[in-house]
Design goal:
Structural class of chain A: alpha+beta
Largest sheet of chain A: 8 strands, mixed
CATH architecture of the largest domain in chain A: Up-down Bundle
Shape of chain A: globular
Number of domains of chain A: 2
Helix content of chain A: 40-55%
Oligomer: homotetramer
Strand content of chain A: 15-25%
CATH superfamily of the largest domain in chain A: Butyryl-CoA Dehydrogenase, subunit A, domain 3
Chain lengths: 268, 268, 268, 268
């Protein structure tokens, strides 16, 4: 979305292996929801593969830079989120005996996990910032529409349930913004790695906030809300998908809980 | 969806007027989310228009049967629900000086509201039955997927939060089914009109249940849940849209509350 | 509450053992939240004890009928629920070398689990019926109060958020009633044991419904709602406590989920 | 609670009038949930009364300092919150022809509203800080108990639903703390009055957070959670009551929504 010239795969749940063959690496496997591959200017893809599946937990992966026209690389299909297809693609890719040289290795062999972590942190914060903007726009649209739309002789904005939605949106968005700002400040002061737990927290908090605000904005708009006459339905599809991508809510919640439980450990 | 040969417009929030001109009626206005018009066998549309805008509240509307190729009728566009377009269409229609004879009137002039009510009740119950089936299928998919998908070395189905989702789905679907069965039984015994308040209740109850079950099934599936590899995302779009169509939740809740408040009226 | 002449302990989470000593049983241990002991007419207590701790899972327990004035039985204290003490008592009991004869055994030795299960089912349904009545009364009070109480120049009952609460209460209470009726009907037809899974469902469904309805009724009443000028706060304490007593929600949800997962088993 | 030597009435929904009689004021009316009156060192009460009921909206009230032993002042009863009575009292007071001199007026006649607002702001922030501490303690207790309590052979802390509760508590408490800190910073920079909208927000946000955290901590504790063996049930009663005292949630949400709607006004 922001840098289409290099496609990336955040959802590496389909296996990809890279095996040594003489001076080359042979990559085999599948990826899906790889972003940006269909952008007309996309020339290279970044992908992670298992180079040492039985090695130490954080040393099994290596990152590769792969030219899109490398023989053996196939775009299987473009994948939708709800009914929306991204023009730049969230594609399923097949790697069939893809041969790469050592110059394709990004960083060092076995350093793929570290690179992924280094990229994910700042990317997550950037996502969260964008989501706050999205939620703010949805709140603005909800306010405008509820004032201009009348039902039973009064603007929708005078109904106490709609007012509750608007107020709760204001409270939750402001709280989410403060949490993101604090996380960004922590990253500047103590580095990305030490700030990782905060990133889990903002991801859950902001996506939940944005999902609820968008859902209620859609309800205020009525049929227009699920159509493409407003950006709300498309945003909803994006936000709902992000609660799965890059670690589903449940994985982040588990990580947060484990850390909290350690803080209050009960000696046996 | 079930009877595409006659298209119908449930969302009459865009104005349509029918004015008398000699022996004819002249219809002008717009409709949207009209279902079935694009079905290859669709020949007639049913539409409601204001024939007496200042008349008594329930005598202002008349229903018309309109051949789809009547001059002045234009399909403006097909409208999506969360990115999904229905092959049979949920279209926006423009009526521009559409001339119809008296034989186009369905029932009697001024009787449009009564016809609408008569059609809506049974249709609503049928929708609810279908939604229960949809929720059951989503629950089945969630159960199967949670047993076959492993994360961190154990099937997702062993996690207590996912088990809570499954149990809550079972409880809510069963409760919704009983409510629908009771409503259908009431309709058989006391007629559609007397059963109208029950229909408001089942619409809200079942749509909320189905929305939650689908959302959680999507979460259990991960990225596959928002793709088209399962029916879940498309079903979600349908269900979410139905919380707006045919009277949004808020209108039904208001009607239910008014009736309840009257039962416990406080004499002043 | 209904039969104070025999006190009973539903919360057997504190250990109680019964060991054979000649012709006698010696009971030792503690119980808490034992109901009815302080009723002036209470003469006997029913208690369950481990008679064969290492025996087969459902054969470890035996039920005993214990005269309240048996030497070694002490009422340690009356226990509150959210500050409320029941006049008949929810007490903590200590059994210190309490000697009983074989005539104190209810049913047969090792049959305590079966007796407990036989008692729990019907008792649970009866609880649920009472909770529905409680929720109905809370809804009635909420309707009356919201009509008589004015804020900012209009009755609270005209506010859309309060109307939503009233309508949701009506929907949920009616759904809960149907579920209870169906369960009672099943018990009559197929017996208590086969109906056990249904009992888990109604317990969770009705307690959640009643908790929400009471909480919202309290909010409509304002300060009077948390005082003793209405029965709402006391009812809330009862209902909230029942979400823990007799198997917390989470245990029932787990049982429901397991059964549902088995219905959709995935062969490996 | 913090300064029992002067009792105060926050819930002035029962009418109190002060009429001029020669050089004196005659106070008549009732107050309830007046805090601190029963403290052994309480000597004075602060109360607000209507001195100009038909005057300009913010000039109708006057604050008075009333010695507790003034003739005509009666403590009617101590009022509970759920089943809890505060030793220092939340009492109902009757004022029957209570005669006071001009020296009893706090500030100036007609300035009562302004004094109330000036006091409420900082008090609200202080309440919120205390509530955050309470929620933190509840989270700590929940972590400790869930690690030491085993069900079905594993600590409760290993169950994913309980882990979700713990993680959500961490997220919500941290977000609430940031919001309070920001509000306190705004009060220091721009004064209490300009910060009033922020105070509405923190009141709603923190009370909802604390209510949920306490409710879940109670569930983790089981029967001990509703007893007085932990502080949780008493804290719950306090927190739930605060969602009513000092402006119920709904009033604050309405104020927040109105302000937000004005930001996005639609010119007609």
């Amino acid at each position: 979305m922001t840098e289409p010239a290099v496609a990336s795969s955040d959802a590496s749940n389909l296996a990809m292996t890279a095996e040594r063959d003489g001076d080359s690496w042979i990559l085999d496997g599948r990826k899906w929801y790889v972003s940006g591959v269909l952008h007309p200017r996309c020339r290279y893809m970044m992908t992670v593969a298992h180079t040492d599946p039985d090695g130490p937990r954080h040393g099994r992966h290596t990152q590769f830079i792969v030219p899109v026209d490398t023989p053996g690389v196939t775009v299987v299909r473009n994948l939708p989120k709800f009914g929306y297809f991204d023009a730049d693609g969230h594609v399923e890719l097949a790697f069939d005996q893809v041969r790469l040289g050592d110059d394709a290795v990004l960083g060092r062999v076995g350093g793929g996990f570290a690179i992924g972590q280094a990229r994910l942190g700042p990317a997550r914060v950037q996502h969260c910032m964008r989501l706050i903007g999205m939620a703010e726009q949805a709140l603005r649209l909800m306010c405008e529409r509820s004032q201009s739309r009348e039902t039973f002789g009064a603007p929708v904005s005078t109904r106490a349930n709609v007012m509750d939605w608007i107020a709760e949106a204001r409270i939750d968005i402001d709280a989410a913004r403060l949490t993101v700002l604090r996380t960004a400040w922590l990253m500047d002061r103590q580095g990305d790695k030490a700030s990782a737990p905060e990133m889990s927290k903002i991801k859950v908090q902001i996506l939940r906030t944005a999902t609820t605000v968008l859902d209620r904005a859609i309800q205020v708009f009525g049929a227009a809300g699920v159509s493409d006459d407003t950006p709300l339905a498309r945003w909803y599809a994006t936000v709902r998908s992000l609660r799965i991508a890059d670690g589903p809510d449940e994985v982040h919640l588990m990580a947060i809980a484990r850390r909290e439980l350690r803080r209050h450990e009960v000696s046996s």
